[in-house]
Amino acid sequence: MGQTLCICSRGSITIDNKRYYFIQKLDEGGFSYVDLVEGVQDGRFYALKRILCHDREGRQEAQTEVEMHRLFSHPNILGLAGHTFIERGGKSEAWILLPYVQKGSLWSVLEKLRDKGSFMPERRILKVLQGICSGLKAMHDRGYAHRDLKPTNVLLEEDDRPLLMDLGSMNRSRMEVKGTREAMTVQDWAAQRCTISYRAPELFNVESHCVIDDRTDIWSLGCVLYSMMFLEGPYDMVFQKGDSVALAVQNPVTIPQPCSYSEGLQNLLRSIMVSNPQERPDVNWILDQIQDMTCSSPNTQTNMV
């Protein structure tokens, strides 16, 4: 792939003939690590995601994540700064270099608001939601779905511009299921790759003959909107209590009352979070609604955190 990497004694790495200094660890997951690195030439900070590939399937999944990043050049989708695969002790690692966003994830912003006993103003919610929808639209227009949209997978720039990240669960938006075996395969995949409290109802019990499409993202988008309004996901507590999320998502979403947000925003949430995917709107309709609400909203306060 024309990409080389070396690990030097001074804590620097080279990817594609560019050197980066290791700064600190940022995050650690089951099979991946994220480090903060600084570009020697440009002085910019980057997030270096290292994915441990235990087998050929793991390597292919990492390769798919790289390809998904390469596929899109969009202001609301996190770009790719570089990548390589290295072999260590008979095991493969994928190294994915991404721009570093200092403000962090949407979830970290919501946690700060919750800790302060504050809230996110409607105008700000609409701005972030519009950016998320623009990123989703770019994906859907190319025939792909994100499949794991949630507040921790949305980064926020200083100007509140959202960036969709963690594209490892992305795949073709339309999946035609023919038979019980295929249904179980899709259901098992969703259980592994789609976060339970943001997972669309049709992915819990996949029918033996059906079509799964990008409306799974619309459901997750509704959960993200809910989390911006109420500072927690609609099914976070259900999951934490050990109750069945699969059962809970079959019922209409409950909007806590009294609610300080406009009837328009509440209705938008209700229209998105419909358990039957056939009745869910597409991202273009949602963008139109946001545009109408933004133009008519008297609230111009943005309360930047």
TrEMBL record:
Known EC number: 2.7.11.1
Keywords, alphabetical: ATP-binding, Kinase, Nucleotide-binding, Serine/threonine-protein kinase, Transferase
Keyword ATP-binding in annotation: yes
Domain Protein kinase: 20-294
InterPro entries linked to this entry: Kinase-like_dom_sf, Prot_kinase_dom, Ser/Thr-specific_kinases, Ser/Thr_kinase_AS
Entry-linked Pfam families: Pkinase
Gene3D superfamilies per record: Phosphorylase Kinase, domain 1, Transferase(Phosphotransferase) domain 1
Reaction(s) this enzyme catalyzes, per UniProt: L-threonyl-[protein] + ATP = O-phospho-L-threonyl-[protein] + ADP + H(+); L-seryl-[protein] + ATP = O-phospho-L-seryl-[protein] + ADP + H(+)
Molecular function GO labels: ATP binding; protein serine/threonine kinase activity
Any coiled-coil regions, as ranges: none
GO cellular component, one term: Golgi apparatus
Enzyme class: transferase
UniProt KW Nucleotide-binding keyword: yes
Domain of life: Eukaryota
Annotated protein name in UniProt: non-specific serine/threonine protein kinase
Organism ancestry: Eukaryota, Metazoa, Chordata, Craniata, Vertebrata
